[in-house]
Amino acid sequence: MESTDLFASSAFRQYGGTLYRFLLRRVRRPADADDLAQEVFMRLLRVSKKERVANPLAYLYGIATHVVHEFRLHEAQCRVSYDSAAVERATEHPIETSQNDLPDRLHLQLQLERALLRLPPGQRAVLLLVKRDGLSHEEAAKVAGLTVQTVEKYVVNAKARIKMEWDT
Questions:
Q1: According to the CATH classification, is domain 3-79 in 1.10.1740?
Q2: Does the fold of domain 84-165 match that of domain 3-79?
Q3: Is the whole model's pTM more than 0.85, yes or no?
Q4: 28 exposure class (CB count in 10 Å sphere: 0-12, 13-18, 19+)
Q5: Distance CA 110, CA 83 (A)
């Protein structure tokens, strides 16, 4: 057995349970946690310079964090059906609501509120300053006490997260 295999095997014996619990708290389904733990240790097997790993548990958590992030992105892509142009039109140019489209507008509003509540507070605040209040990125940066670049990043990230959350 190669030394990398011994390194991974030792890490699995010593930290397997801890890693599994870490993953389970993030994905909630035991089968997914099992799959992700296997992926983490597969990636650990591919480490070519194991001697550079000073803290194996921290290294495993780092790999696990990336694996969970990739898992969530994949899950979101599999269930998202989102028409960004329609949402952009609806938020930029609201139209008068007739009695016939009231249920659709209410459903859209509920979806938007739910998606906004899932945003991190900073992203939500910046997005509302820009989209709801009509502030420029520069004005929003001053109000929020952030740099213009951070405001731009928050707006882009918030829109992307809303797109991923749209159909949940």
A1: yes
A2: no
A3: no
A4: exposed
A5: 16
Note the pLDDT of residue 36.
Answer: 92
Which architecture does CATH list for 84-165? Orthogonal Bundle (1.10)
Cα separation of 95 and 92, whole Å? 10
d(CA 41, CA 158): 32
Name which of 69, 67, 70 is nearest 37 in CA terms: 67
Q: What is the per-residue pLDDT across 98-114, written as a single tens digit (0 to 9) for each?
A: 555 667 667 677 777 77
d(CA 54, CA 63) in angstroms, rounded, equals 14
Alpha-carbon 89 to chain mean position: 25
Q: What gap in Å lies between CA 81 and CA 166, rounded to an integer?
A: 7
Which class for 154: exposed (0-12), middle (13-18), buried (19 or more C-beta within 10 A)?
Answer: buried
Which pLDDT score, from 0 to 100, does residue 79 have? 53
Which tokens belong to 122? 């900073």
Rounded Cα distance between 163 and 111, Å, is 11
